[in-house]
Amino acid sequence: MENNTTANRRIRIFDTTLRDGEQAPGASLYPEEKIRIARQLALMGIDTIEPGFPISSPGDFQAVQQISRELQGVEICGFARAVKADIDAAVKATQDAASRRIHMFLSSSDIHLDFQLRKSRQQVVEMARAMVGYAKQFVDRIEFSPMDATRTGDEFLFEVLEAVIAEGATILNIPDTVGYALPEEYGAMFRRVRQSVRGGDTVEYSAHCHNDLGLAVANSLAAIAAGVTHVEVTVNGVGERAGNCSLEELVMAIETRKHSMGVETGIVTSEIFNTSKMVSRIMGFPIAYNKPIVGRNAFQHEAGIHQDGLLKNRNTYEIMDPEKLGIPRSMIILGKHSGRHALKHRVGQFGIELTGEELDSLYTRFKEKADEQKMVTDDQLMELVGSTVDGQMEPFTLSHMQVISSSDRNRVASVSVRNNQTGTESVYSGTGEGPIEAIVHCLQQAIPMDVEFTDLELHSLSTGEKATGEAEVTISVGGQTYKNTGIDQDVLVAVAKAFISACNQAIRMQNSVTSDGAETVITAS
User: Which residues form the Pyruvate carboxyltransferase domain (predicted)?
Assistant: First the structure.
């Protein structure tokens, strides 16, 4: 039952993309990259940023220090082992922050004590007590994490937590370090700690979950239900092994069900997609197609039944509005499962009206094309429309392309582009450090607009010698973004087709609006 009678409890989002997320193999960041991401995190409304592990390297120290100085509107967290040198580095790196905390961790499970620390339980308690007391001299807000807490028995866990509370710890983070816990176990652990630990009602609680069993978000939600007010997350769920609790998944679970849960966050949801794309690009980590919230397929539909329902009412198959997340609206994907309704709708988006007979003919051609490949791109659809009505629907068409590559000099490209409005064909040449840059320089000359190439994704649609490549290109024209896809066995040709298609889309959108703002409809017959 939804809770509409009381004010929602505020959940504070602690982002560790730049610390725990960066520990994922291959995800290392340069200091300037960390600073760029941190600015975006602050723009998104993150409550606490953990920018790195200051003792680990001069670069990490520098990044934490600069972020502390620059981002005065967000709490900065310095990460440290229960070691004086680590604490000193974290204190110094965050000293210019307007608001800060020190996050200290120390193993607590027997398997970690026996094989990693090689210390007794009593030695661990004394280390925890001494180092929290030491850090408390410099910083008031001290977060303590008993590492591998979910595989630590209650008796020893309670002993460690009572010791650090007595020394001044203000936030207890009980981490599921190896993603072992089940949601009901993790939530119950917080309840037992809050009820049984001396001083447990005087501190705040934080959850930090890993995704080894795919339960990080579920466990974090269970912790929230148990009274936790801080949740530690990473953008795209990046992190060691299977990653951490995904920021976008947790935030949107709360946003979508906040009345039922009685909680809310301060995240600016319209910045979620931009942040996700930035982290993916900078780390070089692609996002899975089926990734919730930010994956390519998260808000796209090919099945005819789903498409029909969506076109009648979006809520039939979508529980979130992608545009409120900053995700461009492109919910209909044309493939062999698509129906006439979706095809008519897509053609109509280009300002084209077809007669019933023309639509039937187009649908037959479309199905034949869709059976040949996984999806039908917009430029291919326009070719089909053109052949159906004996006309050319696209403003520009790529006629020919050639690229000359070399290992020790700039690449040279030459393209031939047909202007279908004038019937003329022109040749353009360009150079670039890479073949794609050279191709784009050519095509930018052919299009009568100021076109900025902003993003590119490349994917293989098949395997073997005859593998087909798919290129998804995003451009910017006059501050508006346009995205389209090209498919070809030659991945460079696919990029060129995608770029031309995106430009054609921009031209169509601009031409579809008259001077008084009314849409112009092109009648194909």
Answer: 11-273
